[in-house]
Every structure is written in structure tokens, then in C-alpha cells.
Design brief:
Blueprint: H1 4-15, E1 20-21, H2 25-32, E2 37-43, H3 47-62, E3 70-75, H4 80-88, E4 99-104, E5 107-112, H5 114-119, H6 122-136
Parallel strand pairs: 1-3, 2-3
Antiparallel strand pairs: 2-4, 4-5
Helix pairs in contact: 2-4, 3-6
Length: about 140
């Protein structure tokens, strides 16, 4: 594990964008199991998280009319219990960090794993997330 002082700026990049940090399994469960949509970001200290994932997520949230109901983050390599619990919701997909998931009513409906993040620009990640938000987080009126 890295010293906490090193990861504070990486944590704050998402909390300033409205994410709730979840550091325990119970906190992850409480957020994910609420009705509606939850954006789950598995944060990481790696370069692709810094240069692509976090900026892409922030751009998507700033440019989408459709927002998830909640936004939570866990930090791989730091918040181990929370990270393991979040990954447990990813339905048999291999654990990667960083990763971006959308949960609906406690079920995985979208997952962007590291291999996709590594090959994309922040702008491409943002565009894909806006598309996913529009499809999966839009509120419907009866």
C-alpha cells in the first residue's frame, strides 16, 4: 500500500466531482443496494487512471444531462475491503483497476475495465460514458 499522503490528491479528484468515498464493504453495500443507478469507480494510482480514467469520468459527468443517482469510489490497493466488495458486484469479471461500473438496483449493467481504459483517451472514455449514462441513467416519465 502507498502512504495515504500520496493518494490524497487522487482521491480528491473524484470527491471534488461529487463522489462519495467508500472505504468499507458495508459502505459499498449500502450505496449499491439502493434503488436506482450507482456509478462505481475503482480508482487507482496508475498512470491510466490519472491521465485517462479520472479526467474522462469528470468530463462525462460535466457533459451529460443524464446522471447516475449516486457516485461512489473505492481505491484499489488502499481500501482493500471496499474494493473487493465492489468488484464482487461485477458478476464474474476479472478484477481490474481502474474500472468504471454502472449498477442498477444492485445489478451490474455496465463495466469498463482497464484494458479498455488503457487503449482510450480521456475524451473517448467521456464520450462512451455519456452514451452509457444516456442509455442507463435517463429517467423516464410515464
Amino acid at each position: 500500500m502507498y502512504p495515504e499522503i500520496m493518494v490524497i490528491p487522487m482521491r480528491e479528484e473524484l470527491t471534488r466531482a461529487g463522489f462519495e468515498e467508500t472505504k468499507t464493504a458495508d459502505e459499498v453495500d449500502a450505496a449499491v443496494n439502493q434503488p436506482g443507478t450507482t456509478l462505481v469507480v475503482v480508482n487507482s494510482i496508475c498512470g491510466c487512471a490519472a491521465g485517462k480514467m479520472r479526467p474522462g469520468v469528470r468530463m462525462a459527468l460535466a457533459n451529460s444531462a443524464n446522471q447516475p443517482d449516486r457516485k461512489i469510489t473505492v481505491f484499489a490497493g488502499q481500501d482493500r475491503e471496499a474494493t473487493e466488495r465492489a468488484r464482487g458486484y461485477f458478476d464474474g469479471n476479472p478484477p481490474t483497476s481502474p474500472a468504471i461500473a454502472i449498477m442498477r438496483d444492485g445489478k451490474l449493467v455496465y463495466l469498463m475495465q482497464r484494458f479498455i481504459i488503457e487503449q482510450a483517451t480521456a475524451q473517448q472514455i467521456a464520450g462512451e460514458l455519456v452514451r452509457a449514462f444516456d442509455e442507463l441513467c435517463a429517467t423516464t416519465t410515464a
